[in-house]
Amino acid sequence: MHGAMRERGFTLIEILVTIAVIAALAAILLPALAHTRRHAWATLCTSNVRQQGAIVLTYTNDFAEALPPKLQWWKRRTIDGDYHNAPWLINRFLALYAGLEFPDPQFGFPHPVGGWRCPDVREDEDIDLRLTHDGFLHHAPNRWMFTSSVVNEQNGKVSFESDALPAWAARWGGRQRRRLGQVFRPGEVVMLMDNVKYFYAGHGHEEARAFHDESRAVVSEDDPCTHRNRGSHDALRLRPAVYADGHAAPVSSRNAF
To answer: What is the residue range of 186's domain?
Structure first.
């Protein structure tokens, strides 16, 4: 009677079966959880570009439909009274215009934070995935819509540059700031999109998303500088984007070789 009342422990076979069941459940559930997390990041990223697009549209209202520069070399007076020349990418420029926080440059470049960065890119991946010659670029502008500018407050000089294809540059006004009213069917034209790849503009490597006809392209091969060429949200084949009329939606991406 005493022996029958003793508690019976698990046998080795029962323990192994339990472990196997747990492993099988984990193998089923973990990919689903990862997929859900990726979709959540893409949704957040779409919200980020929508907010940035809203700032762009507000800017055009304040400046007679003129679009902000995608890059501005800006020689401006600093707090200490001296003039300092530095590149301002569109995200940093928009943050200043809207009075929003944007981090001070670290190691020469500002690292986007909060709504200015893609949630699919860890901060320790900035240099590998999003470094341009002018800074860390995440939500990037349509190349033919936005021009670059050089502003020298010390001598009062301003100039504009367009690096769009020559035919587009001529059609849309050449070397002057584009205006929102020049965009036909704005509901069909991507204005800002999540950045695609490692981009060295000064080396002549074109950014896939920069061209109007290839705004959804994902270049998956390595560039001539042998850097990794991976886009954010590649697992979902999506590109969070905001259009020139202000609506935002993720668009399907495609491979381009």
So the answer is: 64-256
